[in-house]
Every structure is written in structure tokens, then in C-alpha cells.
UniProtKB/TrEMBL annotation:
Organism: Polarella glacialis (Dinoflagellate)
Keywords, ordered alphabetically: Repeat, Signal
Protein name (record): Pentatricopeptide repeat-containing protein, chloroplastic
Pfam families hit by this protein: PPR (PF01535), PPR_2 (PF13041), PPR_3 (PF13812)
PROSITE patterns, A to Z: PPR (PS51375)
InterPro entries: PPR_rpt, TPR-like_helical_dom_sf
Domain of life: Eukaryota
Signal peptide: 1-16
Length: 286
């Protein structure tokens, strides 16, 4: 982003006028570099340079707000677009919904989604995924499931992100049965579960105190050509901990090097938690 700003500042000396593309690219560079303040500052300087902000410029600026989690600013920019005679598109609304998601603001996010048909903007999978994700963060598992069910009727195909977010939402809501049901429906929808999907499903089992199901899912992953990571193992060990299965928890920990997975602090904490509930752990180790 520094180089982008330098190049932009050099243009007047080279007798070149920055245009919409130049500003849009520079704002986007600042956004990706986590420099949301610089991005918005550039947006404020555009009229001074005799450039009229277009859809790409607003999208880049809202993207900067989304990246930094400033949902209020994202909503404010979206509200300014009609006045600037710029029509928001799928990208604009998806980025704003995603900004609301990062801020845990599920109500304004879903309100934006509901207003899209009125604005003649068709939601795509990115829009729906952002909306399901905000429901997951806001603890609204029922709404997450409703949105997932609405996608086929809207001619939008759910993907791994859609299912993972919905499963995670059920997990956080203590709905482990629904979480596992969603996982079982994925092949029927021609969606292949990935590492994140399995992790949130195992986490749902852990939260529901279903250590057997957690271990079963872990055992199915190699067959599905999905490699478990430290998050997978941590959730499975924690499930064993909650089920009073300290031996299994330690066996899982001991097998991690063989699976080329490095235990994290969370993994060790889960294993230690399993051990502290029994006096037999000390004798088993030594």
C-alpha cells in the first residue's frame, strides 16, 4: 500500500491526472494493508482531484471498512451512494453485510439482505454466506438455517462456507443434532465437507457432550481426504475431557506427531483439563 500511495502522489509531477481506476486501486491497496483510515482519507480527497467516485471506488472504501470491522462507517458509505448517483451492487451489499458480521450486528445485516430485491440487486453466494455468518456470530442459529434453506429458491447454491457457518451456528446454539444433520445433507447437495466443516461439527459434538460422535467424525476425516489439524484434535480431546475419557484424550494427544500435527496451547490445555479430573492420569503417564 505504501508503494501505491507513492505512485499516486507522483502522478501530478508526471503531468498525469489520477482517475477512478487509480483511486479505486489505491484505496483497495490501503484496505488490504489494513489502512482503513488512509483509504477513507483518499475517498474524501477524490472530489478535490476532480474525480467523481464510482461504484468501484465506493466498493473499495466499504471493503476497507469491512476489513477493519467498522460496520457503522460501511453503512454510512452505503447510504451516501444514492446521493452520489452511484448504484450499489452485489459487491457493495455483500461487503457491508460482512462488515456488520464482523461487528456482530445481525439485525442491520439481515435488513440489508431483505432490501436487496427492492433495489433490484440479486444476492449471490457471497451475500448469503456473509448473512449466515453474521447470524452465527449473533447466536441466531434459527435464522442461519432459514437463510441456508432459502438459497436454492433464490437459485444460489450453498457451498462449504454456507454449510460450515450454519453448522457452527447450530454448534454455538447447543444444537448438535441439527449440526450433524446438516453435515449429513452435504453430499446430497453436492458439497464436499472441508477441514473447517469437520472442525465445527466436532466442536458441536464437544459442546453437546457427545465424545463418541466427535471421535467418529475424527476417524472419518482421512477417508474423506480431509486432514485433521490442531483445532480438530483440540475439539476431540475436549470432547473426551467432558465425557470423562481422559485415557482417550491422552491417546489422541500422543497420536498427533504421527499425524504430523503440532499440538497448540489449546490442545495441551484440553489434555491437562482431562487429566486434572482423575488421579489415574499420573500413573498412566509414568
Amino acid at each position: 500500500w505504501q508503494l501505491a500511495l507513492i505512485l499516486l502522489s507522483m502522478m501530478p509531477d508526471a503531468r498525469l491526472l489520477p482517475n477512478e481506476i487509480t483511486f479505486s486501486a489505491t484505496i483497495s491497496a490501503c484496505s488490504k494493508g489494513g489502512q482503513w483510515l488512509l483509504a477513507l482519507n483518499l475517498l474524501s480527497l477524490i472530489p478535490e482531484a476532480g474525480v467523481v467516485p464510482d461504484q468501484f471506488i465506493f466498493n473499495a472504501a466499504i471493503g476497507a471498512c469491512e476489513e477493519s470491522g467498522h460496520w457503522q462507517l460501511a453503512l454510512n458509505l452505503l447510504s451516501l451512494m444514492p446521493e452520489a448517483r452511484v448504484v450499489p451492487d452485489q459487491v457493495t451489499r455483500s461487503a457491508t453485510i460482512s462488515a456488520c458480521s464482523k461487528g456482530g450486528q445481525w439485525q442491520p445485516a439481515l435488513n440489508l439482505l431483505s432490501l436487496m430485491p427492492e433495489a433490484r440487486v440479486v444476492p449471490n453466494e457471497i451475500t448469503y454466506n456473509a448473512a449466515i455468518n453474521v447470524c452465527e456470530k449473533g447466536g441466531q442459529w434459527q435464522l442461519a438455517l432459514i437463510l441456508l434453506s432459502m438459497m436454492p429458491d433464490a437459485r444460489v447454491l450453498p457451498d462449504q462456507i454456507s454449510y460450515s457457518a450454519a453448522i457452527s451456528s447450530c454448534s454455538k446454539g447447543g444444537q448438535w443434532q441439527l449440526a450433524l444433520n446438516l453435515l449429513s445433507l452435504m453430499p446430497e447437495a453436492s458439497v464436499v465437507p472441508d477441514q473447517i466443516t469437520y472442525n465445527v461439527a466436532i466442536s458441536a459434538c464437544q459442546k453437546g457432550g457427545r465424545w463418541q460422535l466427535a471421535l467418529n467424525l475424527l476417524s472419518l476425516m482421512p477417508e474423506a481426504r480431509v486432514m485433521p489439524d490442531d483445532i480438530t484434535h483440540s475439539a476431540a480431546i475436549s470432547a473426551c475431557d467432558q465425557g470423562g475419557q481422559w485415557q482417550l484424550a491422552l491417546i489422541l494427544l500422543s497420536l498427533m506427531p504421527e499425524a504430523r500435527v503440532v499440538p497448540s496451547e489449546i490442545t495441551y490445555s484440553a489434555a491437562i483439563s482431562a487429566c486434572e479430573k482423575t488421579s489415574g492420569c499420573w500413573h498412566w503417564i509414568f
